[in-house]
Amino acid sequence: MALPEVPNWLLVVLLILTLFPFLPQLYRIFSRKDSSGISAYYVFFNLISATEQFTIAFFLNMNTHKRCDFFVHDPATAGDWINLAQLGLVWILWLMLFIVYLYFPSDCRSGSKPFIVVAYAVFSLVSIVPIFYDYLAPPTDDSCGDWGPEFCRNMIEGMFYYLHLVIINKGIPVLLIVALFLQARQMLLRPEARALSRIGLAAQAVVFAIVAVSWTMRVKVPNDSTGKRSWYDEIGWVVVDNVIFAVAQGLLLCISWRRTATRISKVEEGEREPLVRG
């Protein structure tokens, strides 16, 4: 039984709601003028995830030459473009957080920032850059020689599809889980830093949990989907990635609260101890 599609007005509401959970974190870094306490790879891996999701969505939406029979409709509907805007907004917000993190001083290991900058530049060369270039400068007769633009485009699309939906996209959930553990470790080592905004974490956990559920009803389900693997490869990846991110933010919020409660308890015990001895 097919699930009803999410109405466009609700998609717009979710798009707007996606913006606000990132603002408290950006404000916190700007107000402190310091990004200490945030793991460089927590930001980097989440940016990779957002970039990959937007890359695939852009590829499927803009691939008007030969539309796939999943994720986007043929022709594309208003909902498909809102979905693309949703993933594009998340990518832009993580990119902003990435830039702000790099700009302000932090306690990350020496060399971490240059490494993630170079690593993201390399990843962009196989993700964002190709899809923008292909959209702005599609293959022509002159660039394809005897093969022709039809053959060139089919070959390029096939390689890009295989690279991202079959290879890279499989590793994104792993990166999100690793990002969670690295940031949790950072918070446990430096509980006094309180680098992550609790309001932001709570809002991200709630909003992205709702968004994750909505993804099961906002994209075109493949007609020939026959198993879990097909569901994940074609539409399930965006659901899984959003679920993992929402759960991760919720766990980080719990860690933040727990460490603060423990610290307050130790302070209170220290204040009572002289009175007991007296």
From TrEMBL:
Entry membrane topology: Multi-pass membrane protein
Keyword Plastid: no
Signal peptide start and end residues: none
Compartment(s) of residence: Membrane
This protein's GO CC annotations: membrane
Keyword tags: Membrane, Transmembrane, Transmembrane helix
Pfam families xref list: PQ-loop
Ranges annotated as spanning the membrane: 6-27, 39-61, 81-103, 115-133, 159-183, 195-215, 235-257
InterPro entries: PQ-loop_rpt
Protein name per UniProt: Uncharacterized protein
Biological classification of the source: Eukaryota, Fungi, Dikarya, Ascomycota, Pezizomycotina
